[in-house]
Amino acid sequence: MYEPNVVGDWQEYDEHAGLRVRVHRLEQAEPPRGRDDAAEGLTYFRLRVTVENRGTRHFGIHLEDGQIDVRIGPDGEGAFVDWRNSQFVEGFDVHPLRRVTAVLYAAGPEAALSQIDVQVQLRVDDEWCDRRLWTGGIGAHEDAVGAGAHCPGAPGGLAHQISNYLRDQAEQGPTN
Questions:
Q1: Rounded Cα gap, residues 55 and 21, in angstroms
Q2: SS3 of 46, please?
Q3: 3-state class of 159 per DSSP?
Q4: CA distance linking residue 165 with residue 127, whole number of Å
Q5: CA-CA distance, 145 to 117, in Å (whole number)?
Q6: How far is it, in rounded angstroms, from Cα 119 to Cα 11?
Q7: Are 148 and 18 in contact (CB under 8 A)?
Q8: Cα distance between the two ends of the chain
Q9: Which DSSP letter does residue 56 get?
Q10: Which residue in 15, 83, 90, 138 is deepest, having the highest Cβ count within 10 Å?
């Protein structure tokens, strides 16, 4: 079974030794160049996607619009992504022990922001990597980094529920 990551988790790419990525710092925030008229009545939030190179050679990283998909709420509806205010990674060489970060501004109805799914498809040296999924929400604790992590102070929080779900799925094993 494919298991989603919790916002804040690092995900390594086996096909590119030492390369890892994470979605983190999911928070409510206003865009720096002002709100888009199409987002009227919606609540803005910001997230970061960081690619880190712990390997021994450099990688050419592409993380542009269309490679990050943001879904909100229990039905997984598409969030409004503010491309004008977002900052992407367009063909940047990440050398060993360095990082590069994309900053994405999106918006949605405030009630739907407690459940946010972010899917990332990284392109490395003009080769597409597998898509990876992170899940979290505004108000969810980013302290939980792993399927069995304890979420202090949030027994009913989203991160705690996700951790429990992932642990239960791991105990059940794959189902076909």
A1: 13
A2: strand
A3: helix
A4: 32
A5: 16
A6: 12
A7: no
A8: 9
A9: S
A10: 138
Strand arrangement of the beta sheet that strand 127-128 belongs to? 89-94, 59-63, 123-124, 127-128
Cα–Cα dist 71/108, whole Å:
9
HSE-CB at 86 with a 13 A cutoff on CA atoms is 26
Six token digits for residue 153: 């102070």
Q: What Rg, from alpha-carbon coordinates, does the chain have?
A: 16
d(Cα 58, Cα 170) in Å, to the nearest integer? 34
Tens digit of pLDDT at every position of the chain (176 positions): 367 899 999 999 989 999 999 999 999 999 999 999 999 999 999 999 999 999 999 999 999 989 999 999 999 999 999 999 999 999 999 999 999 999 999 999 999 999 999 999 999 999 999 999 999 999 644 444 444 444 444 455 666 667 667 666 666 655 55
CB atoms within 10 A of CB 165: 14
Measured at the CA of 14, the angle between CA 81 and CA 93, to 5 degrees, comes to: 60
Q: What is the DSSP string of 96-155?
A: TTEEEEEEEEEEE-GGGTTSEEEEE--EETTEEPPPEEEEE-TT--TT--STT---TT-T
Distance of CA 154 to the CA centre of its chain: 21
Which tokens hold the place of 66? 């269309």
